[in-house]
Amino acid sequence: MGDASREIMRRARQQIPEWTPSQVQDVLAQKKADSSDQEVVVVDVREKHEWNEGYIPGAIHVPRGFLELQIEEAVPDKSKTVVLYCAGGVRSLIAGTTLKQMGYQNAISMSGGFGQWKANGYAFVQPRLMSEAQAKRYSRHMLVPEVGEQGQFKLLDSRVLLIGAGGLGSPAAYYLAAAGVGTIGIIDADVVEESNLQRQIIHNTKRLGQYKAESARETIEALNPDVKVITYIERLDESNVADIIADYDVIVDGTDNFPTRYLLNDAAIIANKPVVHGSVFRFEGQLTVFKPHEGPCYRCLYPEPPPIALAPSCAEAGVLGVLPGIIGLLQATETIKLLLGIGEPLVGRLMTYDALAGEFNELRLFRDPECPACGEHAHPENLPTYADVCAI
Amino acid sequence: MATVRLAPVLRSSVGGSKQVSAEGSNLNEVLADLYKRYPALKEQIQPEGGLSRFVNVYINDQDVRYLQGLETNVGPTDTIQLLPAMAGGQK
Q1: Within a 10 A sphere around the Cβ of A343, how many other Cβ atoms?
Q2: pTM for this entry
Q3: Does A312 contact chain B (CB < 8 Å)?
Q4: At what angle do helices A91-101 and A3-15 cross, to 10 degrees?
Q5: B chain contacts of residue A164, beta-carbon cutoff 8 Å
Q6: DSSP letter (8 states) at residue A202
Q7: pLDDT tens-digit profile of A359-371?
Q8: Which CATH superfamily does the domain covering B2-84 fall into?
Q9: pLDDT tens digit string along A282-313?
Q10: Homologous superfamily of the A158-391 domain (CATH)
């Protein structure tokens, strides 16, 4: 340290009181004991790589280089006691003078810094770290404040179940996997056929005859090794629905038939799981989010399916290949919003898309107080799911 | 005349049109006017007396079940939307 540095330190010591780690520890223990006292804030002014190796529990991280820019947002109340620390107690002392200039009345520097804190054997937190590969892979998410590192960890810890790896499930699964949703369940008993490939982009020509769930797993694993894929080569029915959905946070409904939609609706209400619903027909698609007890459910919307004679044969109805891509990706988007708790999910709103007109529209949906599945006197465990009109 | 927009599955009943006009001062009258010209539509929307439980009818984006049902008033500039349940996804 040169003379000038020493002079700066000497002046800083005159202005900024210093607490030893044991004093800080006592104050924090006291603060914990009477939880109403929120007057002490601990701020770590070290660099990111130092913070990553561990920090004092409850501390806020404001690197010294960003102190002037960020501290007023992090600690708006300038009358609070702000305990600053760095690695050894030098940078925090200088940071204290900056805070004082900025009007903070009770800036304190912890002498000995985090090194002394650790040497005293006091508790510290090791932050969760992303691997270098993950930091690169998700860098565009990290730049979005609504996602950021914490949001990315949330996605990595999330579990999404896709009902069907077909037209809607293919693009939804593909993008959810790219986004780093950590666990993706796929239930589908069908095999890949040539007629699927015009829209079901998660499969390919080499996979003809393979189970769709397995084909989807291969594609996802090649795209993102962070994602764990759980496959169910079966149909969703009364015997398995409760067990399967129990493990997931959000369900993406890409089913092709009414019985499964009703079955899933009722089971999701019982298990309190949000269902992101999508459907397509030729040039049009629609989607909404059924969030139990916060908005309407599928039975509020359609108490009964159409009679067999009026339902179009699903296989013959036809669809423009890109259409399920658009709706499936809107489903993936709603899923991510639900997982991160951001934005306005399409709860109680039905969005429709008309590809030929190039139009999006929105209809308001209401909860039916008399709904047999989610109404006041509902019994979702005991409702008919109707015959499979599409199978006929 | 009110505008009636039809979901894709209903369009074959009206010769393929996406929307048609119909006359009437309430929903009942408007639908009756529609059925007069497109009898096949009645079967899909109102096979029995009341509104079918598998078709949703919206007037200006509001579900008529939460307005006055078939008695809901319809003005000449209103848009009625007929939206039956779609089987949906894709195998």
Answers
A1: 12
A2: 0.80
A3: yes
A4: 60
A5: 89
A6: T
A7: 999 999 989 898 9
A8: Beta-grasp domain (3.10.20.30)
A9: 899 999 999 999 999 999 988 888 776 666 65
A10: NAD(P)-binding Rossmann-like Domain (3.40.50.720)
